[in-house]
Every structure is written in structure tokens, then in C-alpha cells.
Hints:
268 residues, alpha/beta, Rossmann fold, eight-stranded mixed β-sheet, 11 helices, 8 strands, 47% helix, 13% strand
Amino acid sequence: MAKPEPGLTLIGGGRMGSALAGGWIKAGYGGPIAIHDPNPSDLLQGWETGGKIALNPELAPAGILVVAVKPQIFPTILDTIKPHVGPDTLVLSIMAGITLDGLADKLGTDRVARAMPNTPGLVGKGMTLLCLPEGAPEGDAAMLRDLLTPLGDVEGPIGEDKLSAATAISGCGPAYGFLLAEVMAAAGVAHGLDRDMALRLARKTVEGAGALMMDSDELPSKLRENVTSPGGVTKAALDVLMRGDAMPSLMEEAVGAAIKRDRELSGD
Ligand SMILES: NC(=O)c1ccc[n+]([C@@H]2O[C@H](COP(=O)([O-])OP(=O)(O)OC[C@H]3O[C@@H](n4cnc5c(N)ncnc54)[C@H](OP(=O)(O)O)[C@@H]3O)[C@@H](O)[C@H]2O)c1
């Protein structure tokens, strides 16, 4: 991975921050990566011992500054973030709900970007949305795509006006997948299966369906039709799920509610 000058700095070594830093280390970043976190995890301390990161070094302007703290903490730690922002620093925030204008205003630079990862990024299977201000150089977008790749796929840059809708799909979507496994297992138990076995079947089936979908060129709807023989067992179940357009209209309403909440939290 190319080394930005003067360096790569990460504020917040929590779940997402550590997933990113671990990915950079694996990708052979020539570091050390500067990581600032007042309560470093054992994982971070191990990386420091191995010389791969510098933990809480002196505050200095970064080449790329990645902000991965909780959004509610951000306004309270501006004094410790600002010294990392020099005239050439590119700032990437993965904080939910803080707009590009908000970042630029609080940090005193226009060279800002946002990314919205999702939790499968913790195992390198994520979908991360990337968002830059209009007119931002393609070089910045390319550098940030490269930086986010350890989490999985990167989509964008997308317009900030699309970010709430995109977040409602890929940011919240893992919860929809977990809910599917949860209710499938519960239905199995309701119909007489042992709970542990029902959970094993549901988890593996959701994982397998995802893997098959990613391995195939077919649309999800076609894959569904392929396993739905006329008059068959799957068809009997889907007739219930799709009765009166139940599943599509419920999902559309759910995504609408997520978009509304995301906009409220962003102060739109
Ligand atoms: N997890 C997700 O699925 C997800 C998805 C999309 C976006 N995000 C965004 O990613 C960001 C991080 O989420 P996360 O799940 O990684 O949260 P997290 O695990 O709580 O990580 C945040 C880290 O920042 C540390 N921190 C607290 N105060 C700090 C300070 N003054 N300076 C430096 N570090 C400080 C925290 O330490 P303490 O634990 O000691 O407070 C923690 O280690 C959030 O803004 C969230 O909106 C997360």
C-alpha cells in the first residue's frame, strides 16, 4: 500500500479503527501508523511492540487523518484532533451523522471525506460507501478507496444526498440479514426443531445463500425463482412471505424509516 507523506494517523482504535489498521498492516503499509486512543486495547499494544504502529505519539499534521471515534465524542475532542490537520492533510471520517460541511467547519479544512462502513468489514467482507465533496480530485478518491479496501468492497464516491439511502441498505443491512436468520431459527423451533440445530441451519443457510449470490451472475430474483418449483415446498413458503406484496412493502417502509432517522441524526 502506498505510503502517504507525511503519514497515516488514526484517531480511535475501536472496532472499526482496529479493523482498518489490521488491514493496513496486512497489506504491508510501510508505517508506522500513528494511532491515538486513550485506552489502547491489547491488540493495539501488541502491534506497537511489533513496531507496526506508534501508539499516542506526539500530535503532528498527518498526510491522511482517519477519524473513527463515536460521533458524540467528536465535538468534545476537537482540540486534540486539530493539531493533526495541516494544509495538505486529507481527512476521512467514518463517523455516522457528521456531514462533509460539518467536518470542514469543525476542522478548518475543505479536504474532507466520509466513509460509511458496515460490520462485515470486521471480517473483510464489508461494503463501505465513500463520499467526497463535489470537485474533489480523483487522486483523493483513489487513495481513500485503497485505504478502505481492507474492510471489503468500496462503493463510490457517491453524492452525499444519496448517503442516507445507501446507509439504509448497506450500513443497516447486516441487521436485516441477522434478523432473517433469527426469525428463521425461531420458526424452526416453533415447528418442533431443537433450538441449537435450528440456529445452525439458519446461520449456515443465510451464509450459503449470500455466497451463492456473490458467486453467480444471476439477479437475486432469478436465484429465488430457480429454487421455487411450481407447486413445490419453497413456493408454498414464498406465497406466504409475498402475500399482498408483504415482504417488499415491509422492506420499503423499513428502509424509509432508516433514511428518515439518518437524516434527523445528521441534522438535515
Ligand atoms: N461499528 C459499525 O458498524 C459502524 C458502521 C459505520 C460507521 N461506524 C462509525 O465508526 C465509528 C467508530 O465505531 P466503532 O464501532 O469502531 O466504535 P468503538 O469501538 O467505540 O471505537 C471508538 C474508539 O475511540 C476511542 N476513543 C474514545 N475517546 C477517544 C479520544 N479522545 N481520542 C481517541 N480515541 C478515543 C474509544 O475508546 P473507549 O472505548 O475507551 O471510549 C474506542 O476505542 C463511529 O463513529 C461509528 O459511527 C461504525
